[in-house]
Specification:
The longest helix is centred in the N-terminal third of the chain and has 15 residues, at about 10-25. The chain has helices at about 10-25, 50-55, 55-60, 65-75, 75-80, 95-100, 110-115, 140-145, 190-200; strands at about 35, 120-125, 130-135, 150-155, 160-165, 175-180, 185-190, 205-210. The chain has nine helices and eight strands. It folds into two domains: about 30-140, no CATH class; about 145-210, Barwin-like endoglucanases (Beta Barrel), CATH 2.40.40.20. The chain is elongated. The strands form two sheets. It has a five-stranded mixed β-barrel with strand order 4-7-6-5-8. It has about 210 residues and is α+β, with helices and mostly antiparallel strands.
């Protein structure tokens, strides 16, 4: 989560794409498909038209109560209480049907960012608010496919290509915006400011992807 006051200057982009770099750097830990859930439509009362038209009829609680219960106890209760047979869209009211697969207005930029990475809405929606679930093959995600591993050869590439740089493993993972110059021998020159942020020096391994 990135606070709205901190989303300027490309920090949202850095947070999103650095996650895909983390996937590339730890590829064996991830499945062959990635999912990203987007928040659905919430009305002015804080309720969900989709919840009211579908799940709310089976759970006997408001959207706010269900959302709180899910946050505290997990989502196993969904599998326990939802019917096993199909729910036909034609039987839903207009309010519920109209928001199926529609992202909340605040999530439209995130949806475009996901689409630029190769994610697509494949028909899955969230059971709570009907928001779209975006799907992509892991190795086809732009920032996964484009991530390059290289050894630092110099710390003076201030005029290089704009890139996202990353290093570390699991808990020591770090990423930042910076500049890079790749060479044909598997080396990378980066700017000194990025080297300080990443705490790397010549000979260390750095991953990068074009910004």
């Amino acid at each position: 989560f990135l606070h709205p006051n901190e989303r300027a200057g490309g920090l949202g982009l850095l947070l999103a794409r650095s996650r895909y770099m983390f996937v590339a750097m730890h590829r064996a830990r991830f499945a062959d498909r990635l999912l990203a859930e987007l928040r659905g439509i919430i009305d002015e009362r804080g309720g969900s038209p989709f919840w009211d038209g579908v799940a709310g009829r089976f759970f006997g609680m408001s959207f706010q109560d269900a959302d709180y219960f899910n946050a505290i106890n997990g989502n196993q209760f969904i599998a326990d209480l939802m019917p096993k047979h199909p729910v036909y869209i034609a039987m839903l009211d207009d309010d519920a049907r109209s928001v199926i697969g529609v992202p909340h207005p605040t999530g439209r930029a995130a949806m475009r960012m996901l689409e630029n990475e190769g994610f697509r809405h494949d028909g899955y929606v969230d059971i709570f608010d009907g928001g779209p679930t975006m799907v992509a093959h892991t190795d086809d995600v732009t920032s996964v496919k484009g991530s390059v591993r290289a050894y630092v050869t110099a710390l003076s590439a201030s005029e290089g290509e704009r890139a996202i740089l990353a290093t570390g493993q699991l808990g020591t993972f770090r990423a930042c915006f910076g500049a890079r110059v790749l060479d044909a021998d598997g080396g990378i020159a980066i700017d000194s400011a990025s080297a300080d942020l990443l705490d790397v020096s010549e000979g260390d391994t750095v991953w990068s992807v074009a910004r």
